[in-house]
UniProtKB/TrEMBL annotation:
This is Uncharacterized protein. It comes from the Bacteria.
Amino acid sequence: MAQQHGIIVLFDVENALKTRSLDGNTYWFDNMKFIGSTGVGTEQLETIVPGTYFLDGSQATEQVLNWLPAALGAIPPTVPRNYLAEQERADDRRTLEELAALSGEGGVSEADLKRLQQRVGKRAGRQSGRGLTAAKLLDVTGKTTSGADAYNYPAPVITDITGPAVTEKIIYPAQYGSPDMVYDGWYWAATVDTSRPGVYSYTVHVQLHELVERNDELVWESVDLTCTSSLKIISDPKRNGFTGAGLGVLPLPPVPAAG
């Protein structure tokens, strides 16, 4: 069975949009540090891909890479997919309840009305009628905002993977559908040809979304950027991560003698 390598790319979206570059604005992590991946937590990640041969000298199966993007300081992508809609409805309900209470007390003052309007928040539209679904802006705590404060950025979207590792046919990337709705049911993965040890770089194409004002409306506009990483295929045999030995059963603790 192919071994799964998870690669998480954490983006500083706010600073990347300001500088129009992902240089210095990405943080890479993988699950192979225990066998030699370097640069974990930086933008110089070099992912180790082992398993060219089994201990008996036979050719090992291919390995699989999985890329998962996330935005630094944003609402975690692991929350339920209906989280944003639920927060919108809850905020509307609280605002209407407060409005009804104020009306029952003898009317709503201009100051109260202005305060309630600010709490309702603004709804961001879509660029040229396409792209993200129109939704209210939430800040990083999940509360609605007018957009003047720090707001929650949409999750970065990987649109392609290119570079030497692809052109030299070391990895074969593709986008896949999945019942896992954390990433809208889509993610990028690649099989790796482990028969050719060496270091190979690749480029990840990423689409971020910037909140801009157009005709007195807030609109999410796409910004396409790229970042690079690399993988290192080694000729070490596949081994058990718990024991450091070859693939096989895990050692069992001794059974205490019956008293």
